[in-house]
Amino acid sequence: MSNNTNPLWAPTPEAIAATQMDQFRRLVNERFGASLADYDDLYAWSVAQREDFWSTVWDFGEVIAGDRGERVLGNDTMPGAEWFPDARLNFAENLLRYRDDKTALVERLENGQRRSLSYAELYERVERFAAALRQEGVEKGDRVAGFMPNIIDTVVAMLATTSIGAIWTSCSPDFGINGVLDRFGQVAPKVLVACEGYFYNGKTIDSLPRLKEILGRIDSVQKLVAVPVARSAEDTRVAVEQMDRAVALQDFVGNAPQTPLTFEQTPFNHPLYIMYSSGTTGVPKCIVHGAGGTLLQHLKEHRLHGDLSRDDALFYFTTCGWMMWNWLVSGLACGATLVLYDGSPFYPAAKSLWDMTDEEGISVFGTSAKYIAALEKAGCKPRETHKLERLRAVLSTGSPLAHEGFRYVYRDIKQDLCLSSISGGTDIISCFALGNPVLPVYAGELQCRGLGMAVEVWNDDGKPVVGDKGELVCTKSFPCMPIGFWNDEDGSKYRGAYFENWPGVWAHGDYAEITQHGGVVIYGRSDAVLNPGGVRIGTAEIYRQVEKVEEVLDSICIGQEWQDDVRVVLFVVLREGVELNDELVQKIRTTIRANTTPRHVPAKVIQVADIPRTISGKIVELAVRNMVHGKPVKNQEALANPEALKLYENLPELAEA
């Protein structure tokens, strides 16, 4: 259980009063005659009075809409809730509200290339691309897919698509052919926007061979728009001129009519994005998110929980296959400058992203827990080597950030900043628990539950608990729930994914705890929870201890069925030149035992060369567990390094006591 008492950081009363979160609290008090004294009061009110809350978020976020309608909430069920059922709006219009000379986008590639666009230039680029899409016959409800790196052209293509009321879906160009077909093949895009190549870890990767095969196998694609990244514009044109149904970007937009940008007004729940589950246990689920819910939730998270404004430069290390890319791009609605980076975060050196932070004046730096752990293992201390003058917040997601990760950030990156571990996911394209500029930061904890989200932790009896572990659930409907899954006509897959345990209650699949002071601790995925002797253990509890062992670079933990019980097995990747001997095994076990319980101590510790991860960087405990038990791993295309799975097959160490 979490027993934090002393915060690592806390905002001053003056800093709290200057935040948009506190401004919002005062607005609520004024508008509704309330006397909410602090965030706890505001959160309780936001859940109890959801219609008033989301209506106020709409006003505070200055949502642009053709029609808001009178009703805030029609049918209030999960699934199937009808938020703002009479509203008509356009997502892209809200992200393109600013049309001035302030920098909107900065693009940085691993090889040193840099481009930028002002808000006015971004509007013009979107206008040209939207005209080209319309000329190609793209209409409301059609799908446009991006096989793209995290660059300016990707943002332009998404905004142009959604301005029409068409649906955007994307994955990063490091996906294999089957991974792309498993995703885009299900949703039948009319246009595919794709890079001809990209840069990663000092290498130039050519995408054209895969694009030719993808084109040949997805019949719905009428046009492939080839975006120059690794080649010049002219070389790209030459490279694709013999490809059937392909056109270079400059010709696609250059041949389009000069028509003004118009924003198709759509219902609140009109499909905006199709996202994909990681797909490590089968074909990925196609999760459909609505325009209004995504916009409203992102405005809430950016402006209130992130205090994002026009003064900020927002960076998140992400690919276009991860929902954090969609979350990042919504920062345009706040008028911030977005910094887009594509490449390896450690190329050419561990300090690369911190060089960029100083050069671009980044104020909000987003990354993964894995990156923070790797940065610490690399001995990187940005506080000693960089100015970081504008940096005021660090965000971390993807997996639980260990206590030591929190302490590393404050010790070796910067003392005075708000470190926000955030958690939610692709399923809600946002967060259930996240940061807050008016609250203290405790090691290992997410600061709070998100406003308007009725998040609880339930025990096995379906009773809410505080200070104890259980299933993270959301008991009331919220606007950014998926509107459904693609090709799930009767909704059975959707209901099965979230509402099987408790009908009408969203079960997110996280094993978690709500602390006495309102924070949240995530212990790992419920389906990866270990169960030795019938006691439930979150894998994050073990990873936290293993990270303390200097010799270990990375690890993955599973439960192996053994003699009518489950035993804990830990696989470790060690530093170069280090071998796993009895002394190191004992050190690992002693470290785990000293800070947890004897049940956490692995029965087996095994050295491996690599750990399989999804393309967005998450370790895949279920896939490893299946390999260990001789079960098939159905969809290895979802992995960045599927060859690593072979390392876990038929291991002699696991056949013995």
UniProtKB/TrEMBL annotation:
Residues 94-474 form the AMP-dependent synthetase/ligase domain. InterPro entries: Acac_CoA_synth, AMP-bd_C, AMP-bd_C_sf, AMP-binding_CS, AMP-dep_synth/lig_dom, ANL_N_sf. Residues 549-618 form the AMP-binding enzyme C-terminal domain. Keywords: ATP-binding, Ligase, Nucleotide-binding. Signal peptide: none annotated. It comes from the Bacteria. The keyword Metal-binding does not apply. One of its GO terms (molecular function) is ligase activity. Belongs to the ATP-dependent AMP-binding enzyme family. This is Acetoacetate--CoA ligase. It comes from Microbulbifer flavimaris.
